[in-house]
Each structure stands twice: as structure tokens, then as C-alpha cells.
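Step 1: inspect the first sequence and its C-alpha cells.
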Amino acid sequence: MRTSTGKVERRGNGWSYRFAYTDGNGRRRWTRRGGFATKSDAQRALTAAVAKANTGAVVNDANGTTGDFLAAWLDDYLRRGTVKPTASASVRFHVERHLIPRIGALPLAKLRPAVVSKLYGDLLTNGKIDGEGGLSAKTVRNIAGTLHKALGDPVRWGTIATNPAQGVELPKWNRPRPDVYDAGEVAKFLAHAERSNDPNLAVWRLVFVMGLRRGEVLGLTWDDVDLVAGRVAIVQTRVVSPDGKTYTGAPKTDAGRRTAKIDAGTVDALARLKDAQDAARAVLGHWPSRFVATSPDGQPIRPPHLTRLFHRATDAAGLRRIRLHDLRHSSAVEQYRLGVSPAVVSGRLGHSRVSTTQDLYLHYLPTHDAAAADLIGQTLDDGISSRARWAHFGHLSSSAGTFSDEPHEHDEQRNRENKGSSDVNEHDKSAPPGIRTQNLRIKSPLLCR
């Protein structure tokens, strides 16, 4: 039997406990009990309940509130150890900050699709925790994914018959269209960063040259950079979760773990950054960070702050604001424009499939569209010209008003008749009028020897 150790926590003016367990029939169950005056009382009661569950007895018939279920499910989910820390933090935030406060008091048995639908609507209009206003459609869809997953477990365990979140319409969300810089704008941005001695010049170059995500460039350490070979390895990321904490971990996919070449200019910018950090270390006597992207005191730059630094840099360069992630998109579009193979672009970006790269960026290349139109049009014009030449030389078919690249059967019959006739003058077998050579000297026997 699998039983979680449970958790004791303060609720209101008292204390409570919760834990999940598998009963003797193999069904996953959860229980929660509150109203204890002290933490010690709650801990003793939890110990007794876990001991009872270990005997195979049913501690709770699982007909408690949705909040009790979600809290116990969350404990069990986090103890599985099968998800990344960032994903765990997101799920915890969804459950504790959005779901339990809004639907926690409702008995799980009475949770219906209509209630779930209303929940999504409330989150859209008034879902922000630290201020008035609603959450984005993308955030609500993420919360909906957590709820759907949580309610799927009791369905598999046989505790409830159907998933109340199944089939509920989600808020419509379209992937935002990237606002990319062209090559001239990127050059203007990097040139200004060079002139102004921007300490993050190497970071901006890496994002553009390699097409890095924010978390990828922030996860780089000097161990990942080979300045001699001009190669950079992506082996970890630093990202911020909904709870505001920064987590360092492996890339999401195997394709995200990659190594790519960098240009001589980026190598030079990285070398100068390394020299500056070494000089600062000598002055300070220490250097607290092993990361490439650091603040002047050596502390690693947090993801939101890097975005603010990017916006300050683009503002100073006199450019319109785009997202830092759009600099990555700008890199992809420019590589396509230069004729780099889609497979190579996809690999440098860390996409799992080439089709993903093509779906995202091909429609940003109007010049390629124009080139395709020109090629098709030229092929059509060449075909028309070719057929016109055939018609000019007497190979225009009169049958059904169509053109033919081969002589018509009537032409062949006429040729056979002409060949067999002794009355035909040699001049009649010559080219059609208008094409015959007017210089009679060409027919001179002296020129034919």
C-alpha cells in the first residue's frame, strides 16, 4: 500500500492535516481533517490516520470538498518526483492561489462542467491576485490544464465517474505574431551597444547569432563556452516560475540540449566580457557567479531583469520595443532570408521538428514569396514563347483550337503525298513564305561544294 506521510498546516485559527493513500481495493483516496487547537494535536491525529490507512482501512470515503481533494492531490503529485521544479512550482501556484480559493469549498461530488466553465470566465475577468483585472487567455488555459489533470486521477481511481473539466470550452488563444527586427535594425542595435560599452553586448549577440531563448542565455556558464573553437553548448536554463522564483534545470527537450558555432565577432565580445569579469574578481577578491550573464557585482541576472535591460538598450538605440524573445525570432527569419537550410535553422534554435521551424517563420519571408511568383511566371512565359515559336514555324495545330509540339497527322499525310509526286517543284518543299532566305547566292552550286 502506498501512503503519503501527509502534511500538517495552519488553517484559519486552527490546525489541520491532509494525506493521500491507496486503499485495499487499489483505489487512490485522500483525506483531510481540521479543527485542531495545536500543531501537536494535528500531528498526533495525522500519525493515527496514516497508521489506520496502512492497515487497509478506509480513512475517508473521499466525498469531501474539492479543496480537500486538490490539496491532497497536490501533495501526492509533488512527491512523485517525475516533473521538473518549474512545472511543480507552476502546478502548486495554480492549485493554491487560483483553484482552491475559488472552488475549494464546493463538494467534489457537486463539481460540474458548468461550475468549471464559470471558473474560467471568472479568471479571465477578475483572476489577478495582486491587483484588479483578469488573467490572460494563455494563463487560464494553463490553469485549466492543471485542473483537468488533477480531476483525471480520481476518474482513473474510480472515485468519480467523469472528469468535470472534460469538454469545457477553453478561452480562445492565438499564438502572438512575433515582431522581428530586420538585419538593419539588429545592426543598429548592436552597433549602439558597442559604442555605449553595454556590458551585455555579448548576451545580445548570443541571443541573435544562436537564436537563444532567455532562459538558455541566462543558463550559460563559462564552462559551456569554448572561445578557441568558437562553440557554445546549451546544457541548462534559468527560468522564472509563476511563484516568482528562479529555477535552474535541464532544457525542456533533448533538442534543446545542443552545441552550435558562433561567429568571430561574438567570440570577441565574449572574450572581452570574460576579461572584464576576471578584472572585477581581482578587485573584489571573489566572484559569486559562474554564469556568463551577470550584474556588475557578479550576481546572476534574473530573467525579468534581463528583459528590462534589453528594453533600456533598444530604447537607447532609438528602436521600437520588441520582446527579448523576438530577437530570437529575428535570428530565425534572417537565417531563412540568407538561404540557410531549414534543418540547420531548426537545429540551432533547438526545435524538435523542422516543421515547427517552418510553420513559425516561412510566412515572414515576402521576398521568398515574390521569388516563387517570379519563378512560376517565368516558367509560364517560357512555355508560351516556346509554343509561339512552334506556331511560327508551322507547327500550330488547327484541331480543336489547341497547340501541339508535334506535327499534325494532316501535315504528315501531306508530306507523304508531296514526297511521292513527281510534279512537285524543289522550291515547294522549302520553308514557308516569310522564312525563305532572300539571298539567292546561298543556292549557288559553287557555295554548296
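Step 2: inspect the second sequence and its C-alpha cells, then contrast the two.
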Amino acid sequence: MTNAHSDDAVDRDPDDDATGVGRNDATAADPGDATESITVYSDYVCPFCYLGRQSLAEYQETREEPLAVDWHPFDLRAGKRKPDGSIDHEVDDGKGDEYYAQARENVRRLQERYGVDMAQEIATDVDSLPAQIVSVHVRETVPEAWYAFDDAVFAALWQDGRDIGDRDVLVDLASNVEGLDADVVDAARQRGVTGVPTFAFDGHAARGAVPPEQLERLVDGA
């Protein structure tokens, strides 16, 4: 689920014009027996994705049946990346001081609305892509641990102010999630997941918005 917005919307992302919705806190039950799901496009570095999870949590609490999350990563900095995948902060994205001032104001308003304390209002210097890559790997290989890992990543950035682009931080987070260990972080890269989207099949991988013919070769070996 994504939110379209206007100039005065409260869900403006401070780093790009796309936002997503997160999900409820780790204390909530894993909706493994859910018969319905909500699709979520999200980037951990988006404060409105983190705050949006509070709205989703409130909604889930009103439901009689559990609601699963069909999560998809969305790299807000895709248009600012260098060929090596790092962020080029010199790229002019048209977002100046006024834009970020408005973003901070909107974050503070939502914090008050949902009763959420945050270590920071925006995190433009944090690269969330490494966290997204590991999260994709966890969801595909240890799906029962994904909910807890997803919560841990959000909390690390927005509650604790940690750099979720740092390998050691991700290793620490994974080590504290039941069913995961430190090796999952390196395994994500060894598997060939070095960016999103990555399509993996039978030990092989294709990265990027590849044409259908390449996906056919990946799956059918044509």
C-alpha cells in the first residue's frame, strides 16, 4: 500500500516523492495464518514508512481476522546512485531547506498523532539499501523471522538512531532475532543479492528490471 500525496499532505517523504506503509510492532503476533494480505512498498529510511506502521497497527487491532503483509522494497535513492551503488549526494533532486523543514514539521505532527518517540526526524545520510537487501533475503529464506527482523531494522534507525547501512549493525540486529544468525547478512550478498530488485531461481540470480527473455533464461534455462 502506498500513499499518493499533495503539497500539504502529511505523508511526504523527505528524500523522494514516494512513501510506503510499514506494519505493526514486533509485539504483535506474526499473522502466519492470515487469509488476507496488504501489499506494502517501503524504504526503511522513509520516516513516513515507520510512522505509517502505527496507522496499520491501529487498523489491524480493529480486525477480527489477522492481516498479512506482502512487503516489497522500494529504493528511494535509486535515481541518485552511482554505478557502484553508492549514493551521490551531489545530485540535485530539487529538495532544499524549505522542503526538509516541511518534512520535519509533518513528521512531528504524525509523531504526536500516533504517540511515537523518534531519535531523528529525517535520515538523509543513511543508505538503507543494505538493510533492504538483507530483508529480502530473510523473507525468502527464513520467512518466519522476517517480521521480527523488519521491526528491528525500523527500530534501530528511528528509535535508536543507528546506521542500518552499516554491516556490523545489520549483523547485530540479525543476531538478536530468533531463527537468524550473523551469517544471514553475508549470505544475502553471497547469494548474488547486491541490489533490488533481484530475481533468484535455483542458485542463480538476475538483477535489475531485466527483460522477460532474461527471466525466461533464469527460470527455464533457455
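Step 3: confirm your contrast with the notes below.
The domain at 36-191 is CATH 3.40.30.10 (Glutaredoxin). The chain has a mean pLDDT of 80.
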